[in-house]
Amino acid sequence: MGVVTTLEVQKRNKECVNVYLDGEYAFSLTLLEAVKLRKGQTLTESEIAALRGEDEIVRAVDRAARFLSFRPRSIAEVQRNLSQHDTPEPVIELAIERLRLMGYLDDEAFARYWLENRTTFKPMGPMALRYELRQKGIADSVINAVLEAVDADDSAYRAAHAKALRMRGLSRQAFKNKLGSFLQRRGFNYGTSRDVIEQLIQELAAENPDFFSESDDAEEMEE
Question: What is the pTM of this model?
């Protein structure tokens, strides 16, 4: 049993209220939950336990919200973050569900954000994107759906173009070897890489006939 002696709005978060029982701090609640209490109210042990459980969920949601403030996250990333802060598994599950209902967590929206970011700043092939999204805990069904929008040829061209401009003076064969290895590391398949490399060779040679060297020694052939 415990008697509510003080209900105090937090100074740093006006949406939360500190609850004191029998003159001592007991837990904090959201304003929505705190309005159900009043000074002098007697709470049973089961009521106190339930309210403390609600406090744990609110704290987990707040921690996750801070984690999400830096950039969108997948559900698995938020789960791992909360686990690292010793949040009990049942609390994590309830916090995740609350965040989903609030619209803060959506794995499909996150996957589309991730692909858009990669497409803009670091074009990658479907294989590499699939691997990254799996590492983020995204389900294969979601990955398959979002990858349908990826234009691998366009991404490969944009990824290779900037790299190719820095390869002036190589022979065509050395150019193919180096750029092919680069595109493979970015997750593009052989066919896509081959076509993009041939396109770039034609474009660069047309723009500058001296772009490629006629030399084809062993050193240039190395990756």
Answer: 0.78
